[in-house]
Amino acid sequence: MVKVVDGRLVEHPILKFNRGKEVTIYFNGKPIKAYEGETVAAALYASGVRIFSRSFRWHRPRGFFCAIGKCSACMMEVDGIPNVRTCKVYVRDGMQIKTQSGFPNAEKDFFGVMDKLIDRIFPHGSQYTKFNNKIFREMLISRLRSFAGFGNAPKVEFSGNADYEEIECDVLVIGGGPAGMSAAINAGKYGAKVLLIDENPNLGGQLVKQTHRFFGSAKHRAGTRGIKIAKILEEELRKIPNVDIRLETKAFGIYGKIVGAVEKSKLLRIIPKKIVVVTGAYERTLIFENNDLPGVYGAGGVQTLMNVYGIKPGNRGLIVGSGNVGLILSYQLLQAGVEVAAIVEAMPRIGGYFVHAAKVRRLGVPIYVRHTIIRAIGKDHVRGAVIAQLDDKWRPIPGSEKKIDCDFICVAVGLSPTHELLYQAGCKMKFVPELGGLVPLRTKFNETSVEGIYVAGDVAGIEEATSAIMNGRIAGIHAVIALGLGGEMAKKELKESLRDLEEFRAGPFGERIICGIEKCILAKEVEI
Amino acid sequence: MRVAIIGAGIAGLATAYFLAKEGIKVEVFEQKFLLHGASGRNSGGITAQFDDEELIKLAIRNEKLYDKLQSEIGFNFLLRKDGYLKLANSIEELGRIELQRKFGLKVKIMEAEEVRNIFEDINTEAFKFASFYPKGAIVFPWAVIWGLAKGCKDLGVKIYDFTKVEIVAEDGKVKGVKSGEFHEADVVVNAAGAWSKEINDKLGIKEEKRIIREEICVTESIKPYIDPYILHASEGLFLSQSMRGEIVGGIVGKSDGGMTSSLDFLIRYAKLVTRLVPKLKGLAVLRQWAGIYDETLDGKPKMCFSEIKGLYQLNGFGRKGMSIGLACAEIASKEILKFTQEE
Ligand SMILES: Cc1cc2nc3c(=O)[nH]c(=O)nc-3n(C[C@H](O)[C@H](O)[C@H](O)COP(=O)(O)OP(=O)(O)OC[C@H]3O[C@@H](n4cnc5c(N)ncnc54)[C@H](O)[C@@H]3O)c2cc1C
Ligand SMILES: Cc1cc2nc3c(=O)[nH]c(=O)nc-3n(C[C@H](O)[C@H](O)[C@H](O)COP(=O)(O)OP(=O)(O)OC[C@H]3O[C@@H](n4cnc5c(N)ncnc54)[C@H](O)[C@@H]3O)c2cc1C
Ligand code: FES
After folding, report:
1. For A51-73, what is the mean pLDDT?
2. Would you call A127 and B267 a contact, using CB atoms and an 8 Å cutoff?
3. Disulfide-capable partner of B152 in A48, A316, A425, B157 (CB 3.0 to 4.6 Å)?
4. What is the pLDDT of residues A7-26, one digit of tens each?
5. CB count, 10 Å around CB of B275?
6. What is the DSSP code string of A108-162?
7. Is the beta carbon of A70 within 6 A of some atom in ligand 3?
């Protein structure tokens, strides 16, 4: 049994959590215990806070959701600075945190009644079409204005000092997951000046949350845990002196030949010769009634909370989606001493690998195939869910509804490539369902339609870590060859790496991917 | 009588609306989508603080038209009259205050310290003088375009989007416009903003104009904080707060270029804006974009028939289109009406 103290896991069977010094932070004036190294959102969650903000118009409760700074549900005022994503800032002793979009605060918000009223008195878009009389119109404008705005106006001047640095490099790698590390290693080892950036405080991307032993072939580290693979790659990477690694550094734009990024509070203007975009993927969501209720999470959010910060997400969870992510997450929850009420899957069969499914079944978790979630139940956070069986036209069968008791729901219905930077850079994109959504066209060397911009890993098509590593290698080596580095050795290795990938994908699981890639391969091959 | 209008910006749509009200058959052609031009990309600052009699009069007329059209069309442009604050490092750069007063503008000249009564958090070191026009306003440009388009459609005007057209002229007279298809017209209005020069060039009409690119960005939204529209005339910095609470700001355009946005702009803007309002330092920028507009050498719009019979020029609004565009369209529609009656 895993011991839980103050909402935090201690003595996990696989993970060890090194918590920092104990500090006190203040949430709407109330003292809360936290440990250095925890984000504000994680510490609040551990202390039982479930409502983090209110939605802009309807004032519906918003809870912790993505844990990685992508959804804005956790924005609060921190030490007088509005709209701080509390899942991205670390606790400091004496920190003052206030919720901002609710009166008197987000947890007890009088404006919560808006949820019931506003569509009746003020339907969406009516701000444009009602109030044709000048006097009413001007009154409306001033009233509307006082409701506008998410955070409070800044009360103090931001004290972080804003630095600026310009960096020139041969190869810029955006993303430090397996694909990114592999690209950086392979470009770096042939002497290219490489800069690798990742918005997280650690390398590894998705791997840092994967405590399970990996699937895949033995040659490619199957049987090794995801977190271990990340460590192996990182060690190799850190040995190469000409690779500069910047963590907590987010690329926000590719402007022609210049890349803009923010490293903590420093602005970087990066001028690379080649760019490898390896930004991974983000989680898809699902539409059902009350899917915005605090307690409805993405699988990634729960993994981050539980495996990175060691915080117990709840007592009993419902998992939606039986792909590998859903199955593995269920297993990880059980490991952390959390009950899994059930797994529901809309398809007639389980999506993930048999081994994973067998494992969770053995532990007594029911898997409902041909079922979906109809709604989440609860007023200010999840207290249950209703699921129902689907007919062969994907419609819920009346009378088949079942109530499930749970205090959180994980949506694990797949990933979509994080393609925004590629779009902005002008890469030609295509919607390829086999690859998980919008992906860039690319040559077999992973160069996109924009010369000098490469892709690899999940951003090029949702696949898995081994092929992400292989594709990163291809991109990295091709980039150095194009820069005139590496000589014959590199050319030989490039051929080899293409062959390796082909062999790896030859198995039955590669079929779908190969079919997808055929749809987005660029005719123009840049042979070297 | 048929009128074809090129460009669904504020100028083109407003002209279409005024003409349709007089019972004229009007068609509007837009090469991309509504809001593609400067009218969908601007900062919505409305003022009459200009240095020329004609412009001041147009701007005053324009203010009235905003009120009138909103009621008439039944569409709220989200126009907020909290004043237009012009800052400068020298009194000369504030422009011709006496002239503005002569035409009835109640502009107030202030020293830096006084401006804090209007906006407390402004850094008084960042400028010396200000001229405040209380009737100045901020409008949501998208709502203006949506509203005008609604007004047009209610009157039976056809708006073709994704239809890039060329003017067809024969023997010094317009015949209509064509994309793939030919659309006959007795009058063609060139209200194509930054693209109007290209259209005129094709017809051999010479004009001296500058195409200017201006960049702009918005931050995340915060509670009402900045009331007036603020323009720092010496530095070209502008900012205001939208109805949603975002800080919308940029740097007045100087040179031409496409509609792409740049990192250098963001860096410069961040420096300028946080010097003027230091408390904005912690805010994150959510989006940035650029727009282009056309400026004549004397800074006044072109609104006249040109050497090709039936071709009306309604362009050259520079950075003032939201402040004078409606009034100019009203004049244009009257002149076109007169022309059609004479024909
Ligand atoms: C629950 C789960 C279980 C899995 N199990 C397995 C398994 O058993 N076997 C297997 O092979 N695969 C498995 N995978 C898949 C594997 O983890 C991914 O395919 C792999 O991590 C993809 O690597 P990547 O480098 O493309 O992306 P990621 O690992 O997602 O890394 C992308 C990185 O880019 C960073 N980034 C994104 N945008 C920016 C930006 N603008 N600026 C800076 N940095 C940015 C992100 O922070 C992230 O660190 C699993 C995935 C999940 C979610
Ligand atoms: C960043 C920025 C900030 C600004 N701030 C302000 C401000 O605060 N206050 C203010 O008053 N003004 C401001 N302006 C200026 C204002 O936006 C313009 O003056 C005004 O929008 C011009 O309107 P228009 O109708 O002439 O042109 P546009 O709005 O550009 O419309 C022209 C339309 O014609 C279309 N078109 C072009 N060629 C063709 C063709 N061949 N066939 C069919 N369609 C065609 C274009 O696609 C376009 O939609 C700003 C401009 C920018 C870019
Ligand atoms: S941005 Fe913090 S939880 Fe999503």
Report:
1. 87
2. no
3. B157
4. 898 888 888 888 899 999 99
5. 16
6. SBGGGGHHHHHHHHS-TTHHHHS--SHHHHHHHHHHHHHH--SBPPP-S---S--
7. yes
In 3-state terms, what secondary structure has residue A233? helix
Q: Tell me the C-alpha distance between A253 and A275, whole Å.
A: 12
Mean pLDDT computed over B269-286: 93
| A114-133 pLDDT tens trace | 777 777 777 777 778 877 78
**pLDDT tens per residue, range A401-457:** 999 999 999 999 989 999 999 999 999 999 999 999 999 999 999 999 999 999 999
Ligand nearest to the CA of B230: 2
In this prediction, residue B272 has a pLDDT band, given cuts at 50, 70 and 90, of very high
Give the pair of three-digit tokens for residue A10.
Answer: 């201690």
Residue A35 in contact with residue A19, Cβ under 8 Å? yes
Q: B-chain residues within 8 Å CB-CB of A272?
A: none
The domain ranges of chain B are: 2-76+140-208+298-342, 84-136+210-296
Question: B-contacting residues of A 443-472, CB under 8 Å?
Answer: none
Q: How many residues does chain A have?
A: 528
Pick from B35, B198, B293, B312 the residue to mutate for probing ligand 2's pocket: most ligand atoms within 8 Å of its CB: B293
Six token digits for residue A385: 């869910």
pTM of the model: 0.90
Q: Is A131 on the interface with B (CB under 8 A)?
A: yes
Ligand 1 atom with the smallest distance to the CA of A466 is: 11
Residue reference for tokens 């009699």:
B53
Instruction: Delineate the domains of chain A, giving CATH numbers in brackets.
Output: 4-147 (3.10.20.440), 164-282+417-519 (3.50.50.60), 296-413 (3.50.50.60)
pLDDT tens, residue by residue, A480-504: 999 999 999 999 999 999 999 999 8
Rg of chain B in Å (alpha carbons): 20
Place of tokens 């040559």: A443
CATH architecture of B84-136+210-296: 2-Layer Sandwich (3.30)
Q: Which of B221, B278, B280 sits opposite A149 (nearest CB)?
A: B221
A178 C-alpha vs ligand 1 centroid, how far in Å? 7
Burial of A3 (0-12, 13-18, 19+ CB in 10 A): exposed
Distances (CA, A) of A36 to A18, A42, A76, A144: 10, 11, 19, 41
Please list, residue by residue across A404-427, b when 16 or more beta carbons sit within 10 angstroms of its beta carbon and e when fewer do.
Answer: bebbbbbbbbbbbbbbbbbeebeb
Query: Which amino acid appears at position B231 of this protein?
Result: L
ipTM: 0.86
Q: How much distance in Å is there from the Cα of A476 to the middle of ligand 2?
A: 44
* Cα gap B330→B334, rounded to integer Å: 6
Q: Mind giving me the DSSP string for A242-301?
A: TEEEESSEEEEEEETTEEEEEETTEEEEEEEEEEEE---EEE-----BTTTSTTEEEHHH
What's domain B2-76+140-208+298-342's superfamily in CATH? FAD/NAD(P)-binding domain (3.50.50.60)
Q: Do A153 and B225 touch (CB under 8 A)?
A: yes
Tokens (6 digits) for B289 = 């974009």
Return the closest-CA partner of residue B123 out of B170, B164, B87, B83: B87
